[in-house]
């Protein structure tokens, strides 16, 4: 109950989010195996698939040494093994992984985004081609996506929802991202903490807090 499956690149609470939208991308190992077989990614003697030209197929994924990253890597390997795809993990720190991402040098990496403001553009711009090597860390470039984005940005926010949905469909067709989840955060506040009020967007609330003096 501490996360919600992400259906859109826009999370709940952000302008342009459609609660009825459902992603066309599903977790389906059976279909994945059939598609790999169909397009000649054959399994070798070691059980792992090769490229159609017979060369090794190896996915390379950036990671860190944190306990959560280790667990995530184990899950990735387990599920990719199920479809015969070999994956190797490049363990580094966040700063180096980010640097490599901004240089478009990584193959796969996982990350999260915290909204700066509650409008869909804050998330849609992460896949806008001209933002590659900046916010667009997947370095995704699509003329179709960019055209939808540019059209949407000429409209007032309340008229952009249908364009955000079309951008989602284009993203699903090209698949530069695999959407994971929207995290749910809980706050535990001691009685002596004064002034706490969760902000709907930012987490920077510490400057408004104080501690009630201890009475002797």
List key phrases describing it:
6 helices, 29% helix, globular, two-stranded antiparallel ribbon, alpha+beta
Low-confidence parts = none
Given the helix and strand composition, which structural class is it? alpha+beta
Specify Rg, calculated over alpha carbons. 21 Å
Main sheet makeup: 2 strands, antiparallel
* End-to-end C-alpha gap: 41 Å
Helix content: 25-40%
Shape: globular
Count the DSSP helices. 6
Whole-number mean pLDDT: 93
Number of strands: 6
**Strands ordered across the widest β-sheet:** 1-4
| Strand proportion | 5-15%
Series of H and E elements = EHEHEHHHHEEE
Question: What is the strand and helix layout of this fold?
Answer:
Layout: E1 3-5, H1 29-38, E2 58-63, H2 67-81, E3 86-91, H3 94-102, H4 121-124, H5 143-153, H6 161-174, E4 181-183, E5 193-194, E6 210-211
Parallel strand pairs: 2-3
Antiparallel strand pairs: 1-4, 5-6
Helix pairs in contact: 5-6
Structure description:
The protein has 216 residues and is α+β, with helices and mostly antiparallel strands. It has six helices and six strands; from the N terminus they run E-H-E-H-E-H-H-H-H-E-E-E. The strands form three sheets. A two-stranded antiparallel ribbon has the order 1-4. A two-stranded parallel sheet has the order 2-3. Helix 2 links the parallel strand 2 and strand 3. Helix 5 packs antiparallel against helix 6. The longest helix has 15 residues, at 67-81. It starts with a strand and ends in a 5-residue tail after the last strand. The mean pLDDT is 93.
């Amino acid at each position: 109950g501490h996360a919600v499956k992400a259906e859109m690149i826009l999370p709940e609470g952000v302008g342009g989010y459609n609660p009825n939208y459902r992603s066309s991308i599903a977790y389906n190992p059976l279909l994945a195996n059939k598609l790999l077989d169909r397009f000649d990614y054959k399994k070798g003697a070691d059980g792992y698939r090769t490229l159609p030209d017979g060369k090794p197929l190896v996915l390379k994924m950036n990671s860190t040494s944190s306990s959560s990253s280790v667990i995530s890597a184990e899950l990735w390997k387990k599920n990719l093994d199920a479809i015969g795809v070999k994956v190797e993990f490049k363990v580094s720190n966040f700063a180096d992984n980010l640097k490599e991402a901004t240089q478009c040098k990584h193959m796969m990496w996982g990350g999260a985004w915290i909204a700066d403001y509650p409008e869909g553009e804050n998330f849609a711009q992460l896949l806008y081609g001209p933002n590659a090597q900046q916010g667009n860390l997947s370095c995704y470039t699509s003329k179709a996506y960019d055209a939808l984005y540019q059209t949407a940005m000429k409209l007032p926010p309340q008229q952009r929802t249908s364009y955000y949905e079309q951008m989602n469909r284009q993203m699903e067709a090209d698949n530069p991202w695999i959407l994971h989840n929207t995290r749910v955060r809980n706050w535990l506040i001691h009685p002596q903490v004064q002034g706490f009020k969760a902000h709907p967007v930012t987490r920077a609330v510490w400057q408004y807090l104080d501690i009630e003096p201890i009475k002797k």
